[in-house]
Design a protein that fits this description.
By secondary structure, the protein is of the alpha+beta class. It is built from four helices and six strands, in the order H-E-E-E-E-H-E-E-H-H.
């Protein structure tokens, strides 16, 4: 016998993970202020292994518009600089031989719109992941109806619950997007 609650919990867990992933994606979008999380997606080749910058260097924020990266192994300065250059951060790293400075200029209106467009893409990906979780849960319920003789009224109630859950997570994605859009567009 299939456990309907287990299907619902699994769907909710997948929806929660999609929302967490969206939060991580939003954190990596720069907003004109220095934030070390913009470096989280950048990987540096370190002895043949793609390594996050925060695992090979100290990252400091001396002021609101500057990040300082001090690698523990000074031989990696060039590799870190190269990786930052190749990322689409839109910031030129300044290597002084002991550390790398990233100066965050004020964002132009055009760059802000590009960042909002990126955020919209991340939001859509999260909505798709949430809808996929709903689809998989509904498929599991239909299989349970055919194979395990799950009563049709119980199946409908569970599908309604999953739809309500989906609607609530989609609303959370929308709220997160609006908040991030406001943050990016603020001067």
């Amino acid at each position: 016998m299939v456990d309907v609650e287990e299907i619902k919990l699994e769907a909710e867990d997948r929806m929660e993970k999609a929302l967490d992933s969206l939060g991580e994606a939003f954190a990596s979008v720069r907003t004109g202020r220095a934030n070390a999380m913009v470096l989280d997606r950048i990987r540096v080749e370190y002895y043949g292994v793609p390594t996050p910058i925060n695992q090979m260097a100290a990252i400091k924020t001396p002021d609101a518009h500057m990040l300082v990266i001090e690698p523990w192994d000074k031989g990696t300065l060039g590799a870190i600089e190269h990786a930052i250059h190749n990322s689409n951060l839109g910031i030129n790293p300044n290597n002084d031989g002991t550390c790398i400075r990233l100066s965050f200029p004020q964002l132009t209106e055009e760059r802000r719109r590009d960042l909002v467009r990126d955020c919209k893409t991340y939001s859509e990906e999260a909505r798709i992941a949430i809808r996929n979780a709903r689809r998989d849960a509904n498929t599991a319920l239909e299989k349970a109806g055919k194979n395990d003789n799950l009563p049709e009224d119980q199946q409908r109630r569970a599908q309604d619950d999953i739809q309500k859950l989906t609607d609530s997570y989609i609303a959370k994605v929308e709220d997160s997007f609006k908040e991030k859009e406001k943050e990016v567009m603020a001067i």
